[in-house]
Design brief:
With 127 residues, the chain is mainly α. The protein is built from 6 helices and 2 strands. It has helices spanning 7-17, 19-22, 43-53, 63-83, 88-111, 113-123; strands at 27-31, 37-41. It has a two-stranded antiparallel ribbon. The radius of gyration is 19 Å and the shape is globular. Mean pLDDT is 80; it is low at 23-27 and 29-37.
């Protein structure tokens, strides 16, 4: 049986060929089928953040590191919304990230107030 390729496939190939032109040092554009574009944090920036906020060697899952990485993603999405005001689906993801960061901050405040206040100052979250 003969099957016709969807028109989205041609768009995907053209976007994929232009991927090298779209990459920058700060953010990397990852292109999926149906022309869906996701803004991701580069590996170098992520490792720098982990190195800055880790509490011990090999630490990637402490609340400080998680909150710092989530804050970076929130900042990237906030920049995205300046250009794309009507992107409501990504806005839902932003709200999920904000709530996740809020719960991690609440946990850190309950368990260790000193680490919490230090992290708040470093990330400049509260005024």
């Amino acid at each position: 049986m003969w099957s016709k390729q969807p028109t989205n496939h041609r768009k995907f190939k053209s976007l994929q060929s232009n991927l090298d032109m779209l990459e920058s040092s700060e953010t990397k554009l990852i292109i999926f089928k149906r022309s869906y574009i996701k803004v991701a944090i580069t590996k170098e920036r992520k490792t720098q953040t982990v190195e800055k906020f880790k509490t011990h060697e090999g630490d990637t899952g402490s609340p400080e590191v998680q909150i710092a990485l989530i804050t970076q993603r929130i900042d990237e999405l906030s920049k995205h919304f300046e250009a794309h005001k009507k992107d409501f689906h990504s806005r839902i993801g932003l709200m999920q990230l904000v709530n996740q960061r809020k719960s991690l901050l609440s946990y850190l405040r309950k368990t260790d107030a000193v680490r919490y206040s230090k992290l708040i100052k470093e990330l400049d979250l509260r005024k």
